[in-house]
Each structure stands twice: as structure tokens, then as C-alpha cells.
Design goal:
alpha/beta; Rossmann fold; four-stranded parallel β-sheet; 12 helices; 8% strand; globular
């Protein structure tokens, strides 16, 4: 970030993985630019700074404003120098974790068991869905955050676009909603699959890059996880997350 810099017009997309991150990136890209898919990879126009550092990708300081920046950082690790706006998206935890499991399997882990994966994503601090979402929903430091749900992004796209525009002080009447709907549709994004997900690496011969954009069906996780996992999830959801969702007027 020292190299990339900070600007008050920056827009940060914050999510637990597989919670509508790419869809929101594309919605914001359509809202704030001419919307052409003339980039090699989404990360070229909407970077994930921390991942770029790991991958050795040089910060693009020529991006036009507002810059759309992706992050999966926990609340306590979110850069305190940030002075832009934050859009936070939350998705049903079982659905998000099942989608993340499918991604892990596609990206070189074909033998990964769902049970082993679920234990790490709910009961350990590293990657814990509750651990991630709780402090972001609480927002003790009172960051400038717009809270959205995955279902809003998918099922109420026009109304959600209006919310986003109001939050970012963008005139909704100037937004080409027909283009937004078309170019952020599941079908259109699947046609441009190679522009999303992990950047292709010849060393990753066992990676399946064709499954990054999924259908995102609600209730998928409820069908796939064990009863033990589901009981653990619902118990902790009631105790830790639902009071905060109510506070933010959200339903997942």
C-alpha cells in the first residue's frame, strides 16, 4: 500500500471469500467506467493488493479514480491509513464456505474432504467465518461502510445499484442499468471466465480455471454439510452474528 498509495475516492470491497466479491467488483466497474471487458484480468482494473504482493505483481498507479480495491482482510488487519469508502458484503455462511470448498478442490486439492475443510473454516481462527464477519459487522472504529448481502447483489441488482450510487454520491440516472445487468449476468461472466479467479500459471497443471464463476445457488451448503457442522453453524449464527445483522438491518 505504501507503493500503491491512498486516496479518499478509493472504494474498498470487503468480503469473506466467495461472498459476491467478483460480482460486486464488476458492478462497480460498470457503474464507474465505460464497462468494456478490455482488460486481461479483473485484477488489472480492480486489484487485490495483498495478493499482488505475494504474487510479485507491481502496483498499478495509473488506475483512474475511483479505484476499486478488493480485500479479504480481517477487520483488525484492515489498513488504518485507508480513508476511502468501504462496501462490505455478507453471504449465508454455509453457502460461502461450500463455494470456497469447491474452489479449493478446483485449485489443486481434488482429494480435500468437505469435513476436514469445514472444521478449519468454522472452528479455527484462521479462515473462521464467524471470526471474520463479527468485527466487520460490529465496526467499532466506525469506518464509512455500506452493508450489503449476497442475495441483494444477485436478486435485487437494480435496487442495490441505487444503494451503491447513493453511498458513493454517484448520480444513478447516469448509470446504464441495461449494461450493468447484461455484463454482470452469470451467463456473460461465464463467457469471460478467464478474466476472473486465479491468474493462470503454467506450473499449476492440475488447476481447473473453468469453475471459478459458479451458479451461486442459495441453500447449497445446507444440503452438503454434515449435521454436526450445520448445528455448530446455526448455534453460533444465533449467538454471535444475528444480533449484528439485526443492527445493520440485514438478512442472510
Amino acid at each position: 500500500m505504501d507503493d500503491f498509495g491512498y486516496d479518499k475516492t478509493d472504494i474498498y470491497i470487503v468480503t469473506y471469500p466467495r461472498s459476491g466479491t467478483t460480482l460486486l467488483q464488476m458492478m462497480l466497474y460498470q457503474i464507474t467506467t465505460d464497462g468494456e471487458y478490455n482488460f486481461d484480468h479483473l485484477g488489472d482494473v480492480s486489484p487485490w493488493i495483498k495478493n499482488d504482493v505475494y504474487e510479485g505483481i507491481t502496483a498499478n498507479k495509473e488506475l483512474s479514480q475511483p479505484r476499486i480495491i478488493k480485500t479479504h482482510d480481517p477487520y483488525k488487519e484492515f489498513d488504518p491509513m485507508v480513508n476511502g469508502k468501504v462496501i462490505f458484503v455478507i453471504r449465508n455462511g454455509l453457502d460461502a464456505m461450500y463455494s470456497l470448498y469447491q474452489q479449493k478442490v478446483s485449485y489443486g486439492n481434488p482429494d480435500l474432504s468437505l469435513e476436514k475443510f469445514s472444521q478449519s473454516k468454522m472452528k479455527n481462527d484462521n479462515g473462521n467465518w464467524f471470526y471474520f464477519n463479527d468485527p466487520w459487522l460490529e465496526n467499532k472504529k466506525k469506518k464509512d461502510i455500506l452493508y450489503l448481502t449476497y442475495n441483494e447483489l444477485v436478486k435485487e441488482k437494480e435496487n442495490t445499484t441505487k444503494k451503491i450510487c447513493a453511498f458513493l454520491n454517484i448520480d444513478f440516472s447516469n448509470v446504464d442499468m441495461e449494461r450493468v445487468m447484461k455484463k454482470t449476468s452469470l451467463e456473460y461472466m461465464k463467457q469471460h471466465q478467464d478474466k476472473f479467479g486465479e491468474r493462470k500459471d503454467p506450473d499449476h497443471k492440475n488447476f481447473d480455471y473453468t469453475k471459478f464463476i459458479r451458479s451461486g445457488n442459495a441453500g447449497e451448503g445446507e444440503k452438503e454439510f454434515s449435521m454436526e457442522v450445520k448445528n455448530f453453524y446455526h448455534s453460533n449464527l444465533e449467538k454471535h452474528i444475528k444480533p449484528l445483522l439485526k443492527k445493520r438491518n440485514l438478512e442472510i
